[in-house]
Design a protein that fits this description.
357 residues; alpha+beta; Creatine Kinase, Chain A, domain 2; 8-stranded antiparallel beta sheet; two-stranded antiparallel sheet; globular
Length: 357
């Protein structure tokens, strides 16, 4: 399979769309945690009870058309190969927890992969909506429509005083986790991120790596999300997060302008060195690839590089992860083989743009 065909088949549709402020905000995500009344929470579910939850959801949701996205496909985690689950994690369609620690988990996934309903993860269901760029209110509206659609068909565990009941106390209330994925090379290169992260934490938000808690900020990509879910309306949580994100966007743009004014030649040299590595390397590790892709995307945004798609970072930061590389290769690869395959995929992908233009 050619790299062009592979990427077309593997690409989630939301990744191809260019949302507001997409030069800095790669994606917006809203996730709602919900549990069913009269059922134990997933942490103490027996096998038969977990299967009953899946059966309940399958019977009431799978063959129905969901709002905006239509049909949903049920994927049982215990019938997927480890590589298939890893690819779903790398595409942000499911969580690492569902893939690795939920033996009776499942997922209802929309065709465009904007909507994912994770089943028997930490809660009975987790409704996730993903959109490109800064679109948190729109993602919340989509998640709420999905939530209303499901609630007409099942009974939620809800308390008048506490709100939605969840396995983890930090999710009680709205059950809402809203997050944005941001590319922040300017703030990293000007050494401002170490100052900004504690300030964000003081506002009740948290900054994590590309795959959430415990993950690295590969390619200068950071995930900013809310921590508070209790005692605050969903709209206020999203509005507050959006406001902070807009401030970070402004600071990132200022940092980029300062770099161009004070270190233009050094910055241009950094961009073109990374471009040279990506277009010529025969072997490249994950961290180096992420760093070079971040430099390349910054060079595109600043106008240094004119013949490469802006989506290159969003695409290749995912497609050069171990799961995707092995899917592209058609089987398991040793670490060195993955480094060779990664370099080949990047060169081929960049050549598609360069030769086209």
């Amino acid at each position: 399979m050619s790299v062009e065909d592979f990427i077309k088949q593997a690409m989630s549709s939301w990744m191809n769309e260019e949302g507001p402020d997409s030069d800095i905000v790669l994606s917006s995500r809203v996730r709602l945690a919900r549990n069913f009344r009269d059922y134990k929470f997933p942490a103490i579910l027996a096998h038969e009870e977990a299967q009953e939850i899946i059966g309940l959801i399958k019977a009431r949701l799978e063959n129905e058309d969901a709002p905006e996205v239509g049909g949903l496909e049920l994927l049982n985690m215990n019938t997927l190969q480890p590589l298939e689950k890893r690819v779903l994690v790398e595409k942000h369609a499911i969580s690492p927890h569902l893939a690795e620690e939920s033996p009776y988990g499942a997922c209802l996934l929309s065709t465009d992969e904007k909507v994912s309903i994770m089943i028997n993860e930490e809660d009975h269901i987790r409704i996730q909506c993903l959109l490109s760029g800064l679109q948190l209110p729109e993602a919340l509206q989509m998640a709420n429509r999905m939530d209303d659609w499901i609630e007409k068909r099942v009974d939620y565990a809800f308390d008048e005083d506490c709100g939605y009941l969840t396995s983890c106390p930090t999710n009680v209330g709205t059950g809402l986790r809203a997050s944005v994925m941001m590319h922040l090379p300017g703030l990293v290169l000007t050494h401002q991120m170490n100052r900004i992260i504690p300030a964000i934490n003081q506002l009740g938000l948290v900054v994590r790596g590309i795959y959430g808690e415990g993950s690295e900020a590969l390619g200068n990509i950071f995930q900013v999300s809310n921590q508070i879910t209790l005692g605050k309306p969903e709209e206020d949580i999203v509005e507050d997060l959006t406001s902070v994100v807009q401030q970070i966007i402004a600071q990132e743009r200022s940092a980029r302008e300062a770099l161009v004014k004070t270190s233009n030649i050094q910055l241009e040299d950094r961009v073109y060195r990374s471009f040279g590595i990506l277009t010529n390397a025969r072997t490249i590790e994950t961290k180096e690839a992420a760093k070079c892709l971040s430099d390349l995307r910054l060079g595109i945004d600043l106008g240094y590089i004119k013949n490469v798609s802006k989506n290159i970072l969003s695409e290749l930061i995912i497609f050069t992860q171990p799961g995707f590389l092995q899917q592209y290769a058609g089987g398991a690869l040793r670490p060195y083989e993955r480094d060779v395959r990664r370099a080949t995929l990047i060169r081929e992908r960049l050549n598609l743009d360069i030769n086209e233009k």
